[in-house]
């Protein structure tokens, strides 16, 4: 069995979001979301390594994250977020836990 490498609580659920990077911008669906990163479902694709911004709504709150594209897939891409504050990480974790309980 593979060892879990993730450091943050995550939820594999779709959320409404927006992607903006050097190669474009697009409304997207964000899934597999945690304080460390996310997977973005999008037809518009950035370049691997591109610095990008993801805005995602979880519950009634919008979060804006910056980070690097670390993986490309035919249906989207993964972003590793720049570190966020502990208070923002706690709030995101709380919102994600509420979303997962629904």
What does the model show?
- With 102 residues, the protein is α+β, with helices and mostly antiparallel strands.
- The chain has one domain (10-96): predicted glycosyltransferase like domains (Thrombin, subunit H), CATH 2.40.10.
- It is 16% helix and 51% strand.
- The protein has one helix spanning 86-101; strands at 10-11, 15-21, 24-34, 37-41, 51-58, 61-73, 76-81.
- A hairpin with a 2-residue loop joins strand 2 and strand 3.
- It starts with 9 loop residues before the first strand and ends with a helix.
- The mean pLDDT is 90.
Number of distinct helices: 1
- Tally of strands: 7
Would you tell me the overall average pLDDT?
90
Q: Name the helicity range.
A: 10-25%
Q: Strands of the largest sheet, in order across it?
A: 2-3-4-7-6-5
Broad structural category: alpha+beta
Describe the biggest sheet? 6 strands, antiparallel, barrel
CATH class category: Mainly Beta
Radius of gyration: 13 Å
Approximate shape: globular
- CATH fold annotation: Thrombin, subunit H
- Uncertain stretches of 5 or more adjacent residues: none
SS strand fraction: over 45%
CATH superfamily: predicted glycosyltransferase like domains
